[in-house]
Amino acid sequence: MNSVFDTTKPIALGADHAGFEYKEAIKLWLTNKGFTVKDFGTHSIESVDYPDFAHPTAASVESGECAFGILFCGSANGVAITANKHQHIRAGLAWQNDVAKLIRQHNNANIVCIPARFIALALVEEIIENFMTTAFEGGRHSRRVDKIAC
C-alpha cells in the first residue's frame, strides 16, 4: 500500500471501549503491513471517556509526531468532535469507502474516525486503506480548507 502520508512516522491510534476491539485488530493489520503505530489507548473494553484517548491521538498528529490518526468509538461522532477541537486537525467520520476518499480529497483530513458499532471490520480495513492512499486535490479545496481554522 502506497500511503500519501509520511510513513517514516507512526500512525496514531485511539479508541474508547466501543472501538477497542477494532483498534486492536487494525493495529495488528497495520503492523503486519510494515507500518509503525502509536497506541494511545484504551487498552480494554471497560467503559471509558472517549476524550481521554481522542485528545492525545489528535495532539500527536497536530505536533507532527505521528503521520495521521485513526480514531474509533461507537458512532465516531464523539471522537471526531473532540479531535476537531485541535486547531490543526481535520478529523472526518468515514463509514464508506467513498466518504474516506472525499474527506482526503476535499478536506485534507488528517484523522479518520470510524464508527465501530456500525460497520464490519473488513470494511474498516478498506476505509483506512482508501484514506491512506488518497491524496488531497488542492485547488478550490485548498481555499476552503484554509478557512476552517479559527
From TrEMBL:
Keywords: Isomerase. It comes from the Bacteria. InterPro entries: RpiB (IPR004785), RpiB_LacA_LacB (IPR003500), RpiB_LacA_LacB_sf (IPR036569). The keyword Isomerase applies. Its EC number is 5.3.1.6. It is an enzyme of class 5 (isomerase). Belongs to the LacAB/RpiB family. PANTHER family: DNA DAMAGE-REPAIR_TOLERATION PROTEIN DRT102, RIBOSE-5-PHOSPHATE ISOMERASE B. This is Ribose 5-phosphate isomerase B. It comes from Parasediminibacterium paludis. The gene is rpiB.
